Amino acid sequence: MIEIKHLKKYYDKTLALTIDSLAIENNHVLGLVGTNGSGKSTLLRLIAGVLTQEEGEIALDGISVKDHPECKKDLLYISDDPIDHVNTSIDSLFLFYSVFYGMTREKLNAYLDYFSIPHSGNLSKFSKGMRRRTYLAIALAVEPKILLLDEAFDGLDPTGKKAFILALSELIERNDMTVIVASHSIRELENLCDSYLMLQEGKVITYAPEGLNGEDFTKIGVAFKDSFDFTKLSSPKAILVSHIDKIGTLFFEGTKEEAEAYLAPFAPAVTEFTPLSAEEYFILKTEEHKHD
Amino acid sequence: MIKNYLVYLWKKTYKFVIVAFFVFLLLYPVSLLANGTPELIRYYTILCIDGVYETVPTEYFYVSHYDTLLSRLTILAMASCYLLPIIVQATFQSKKRCDTLLALPIRKKTQILLTSAYAFVTFLILFWITALLGLGASVIVQQHYDVPNFFLYLLVMTVFSAGTFGITTLFASLMNNVVDSILMVILSMAIAPLFYLMIDDMPTTFDCSDMLLFTCPIYAADRVTCYFQEQVAYYSEGLLDLIASTPPEFARPEYIYNSFFYYTFGAKEIGGMFTLLGMGIVSYGASYFLWKGLRAEAMQTPSAKWYTYPLTLSVFFIPAFFLCRFIPNFETENLLIQAIFIVTYFIATFIFQRKIKFNKTNLIAFGATYLASTIPAFFLG
């Protein structure tokens, strides 16, 4: 179990991340989402012990990471761009990860095959996607108890993303694994994560233990017969996302029935109600937070 | 995990260690050749055994040969050339690699200490093997040898290396950032041989080597080590035997001292003290502002202009020269030497410090380590 309490991390004097309390159970997949600079990587780096916090505590199974780095023995952290590629080969990566994490060559080769990566070669000659797949192969081959992945899908094509999600899901099912994955690809996270932590400007704006399903919101596509001033639709409960001439889209906080009641005075010609996707929910929350 | 770390270091560097061994074997004759010794082969074969001081008959065996500048420089260069690739290649290759390393369940300081210890131990093993081969060759070719001196020499060089490695390790581990600390070590070790070269036989009344105490922790480490070397030399049974068997005119303790460990020690004049202090402050001040200029340029901020560096250099350089001019007994050649020294330092600064993060913590760590490594050396000297 990963526990975070009263965490505060500063870069120089700027508060980069603050989390009052967070507990991530074992065998759980947490998605970290947020805009650029929201603190996702900082949080992963703090848990991995790459950075140390100024205040608060991060504990793995009750042991402080800061005071007892040895508690990280079952933790693997794959950063967004882990190692300088100039002198890094598959063999040198294997050397490093096999010595420290007990990975076998057979297992690594199997995952390299799975991701269509050659068994040898220098990473400087690999494309960005190939490098990413190589590290993901390592992450899977190590089979750590706690896996921290920063920008897991960065540089991957749709096939690569799907393959990784599938392989990781299988691994999670087979082993007791806790995974924290930070990504901008919310659509991909939807297929992987049990819960989500949404960060913005170093603060938690939403913790969604049941997923980013946006149950409290309704997405409304609306069209009018004549030109319409869509700003009239905006309110604390309704956020106007986009509009062109007579057609617009808005997010409404409430059920479909409540949305219908809200729109009735404006007499729209057509209305279409759909549930929010995780990505839309993320945009909504980010916008909400900006307005706050 | 510590065992794993050492296994990793070995697997990562064993090829380099093997190559280094052969390089070490070659470095000895090169060092002697550079020293202008005519009988290169002979001296190489009697490595670690014979004395070569012109005034001393060769039948009296001194270990003083190994105190010549180039011999010591060779050892230092060997240590530097050996330590740095291991640290840089095996571990702290880049900031990205640092992230991966810092995520390991070993503390950063433990990693640095283990790496340094690994480098030190393997260096000593190679060094001892090289020296033993020299002893063997000497026995075969010369049919004579002086085992106590030989082992005294090894002991002294072991202490010397330990001092150097120890200080640099301490220096590195006190820094806040792994990359910074390694770069600082590189900076120190890379410029140390240059200083050694600069002070070689300079006819000065105010010895430039004094200044090194304030600018080069490696040199300071050497000073500290020298102190212990002296103790070893004075109390070593082997050396006392040697003195006893030497004609009285060569057996004076100061001669042994001079021949074995000769360096001019710390500044003896109050003016010199101020010079050292002034130059130290000026050097570090200049480095800091130069770094700021470099960083400004790197970030393409308006504050960086083409004249940023020369201007910054002048602001610190010109007062430094004036300061030096008013020091009693400070001669022109000293000024030249100092100019070379400062330029060298700045070049090193340009190269290395642009990658170093100069935040308050690092500066305090740097200053504390610098003082910790230089002040004892100064007083011991």
How would you explain this protein's 3D organization?
The complex is a heterodimer of chains A (292) and B (381). Chain A is α/β, with parallel strands linked by helices. Chain A is built from 8 helices and 14 strands. Chain A has 2 domains: 2-208, 3-Layer(aba) Sandwich (Rossmann fold); 218-274. In chain A, helix 3 crosses helix 4 (128-142) and helix 4 runs parallel beside helix 5 (158-174). Chain A starts with a strand and ends with a helix. In chain A, 41% of the residues are buried. Chain B contains 15 helices and no strands. Chain B has helices spanning 2-34, 40-45, 69-91, 95-102, 108-142, 147-174, 178-198, 209-215, 217-235, 237-244, 253-261, 270-298, 308-325, 332-353, 360-380.
Spell out the key features of this protein.
heterodimer; A: Rossmann fold; 6-stranded mixed β-sheet; 4-stranded antiparallel β-sheet; globular; B: 381 residues; mainly alpha; 15 helices; disordered C terminus
List the helices and strands and how they pair.
The complex is a heterodimer of chains A (292) and B (381).
Chain A lengths: L1 E10 L2 E11 L4 E6 L5 H9 L6 E6 L2 E2 L10 E4 L11 H12 L3 H10 L13 H15 L3 E5 L7 H17 L3 E5 L3 H5 L4 E6 L2 E6 L8 E7 L14 E7 L2 E7 L2 H8 L6 E5 L3 H14 L1
Parallel strand pairs in A: 3-8, 3-9, 6-7, 7-8
Antiparallel strand pairs in A: 1-2, 1-4, 4-5, 9-10, 11-13, 11-14, 12-13
Helix pairs in contact in A: 3-4, 4-5
Chain B lengths: L1 H33 L5 H6 L23 H23 L3 H8 L5 H35 L4 H28 L3 H21 L10 H7 L1 H19 L1 H8 L8 H9 L8 H29 L9 H18 L6 H22 L6 H21 L1
Helix pairs in contact in B: 1-3, 1-5, 3-5, 3-6, 3-7, 5-6, 6-7, 6-9, 6-15, 7-14, 8-9, 8-12, 8-15, 9-11, 9-15, 12-13, 12-14
- What is the largest interface, and how many residues per chain? A-B, 24 and 22 residues
- Overall 3D shape of chain B: globular
Main sheet specs of chain B:
none
Question: Over all CA atoms, what is the radius of gyration of chain B?
Answer: 22 Å
With strands numbered from the N-terminus, the spatial order across the biggest sheet of chain A is 6-7-8-3-9-10
Number of strands of chain B: 0
Fraction of residues of chain B in helices? over 70%
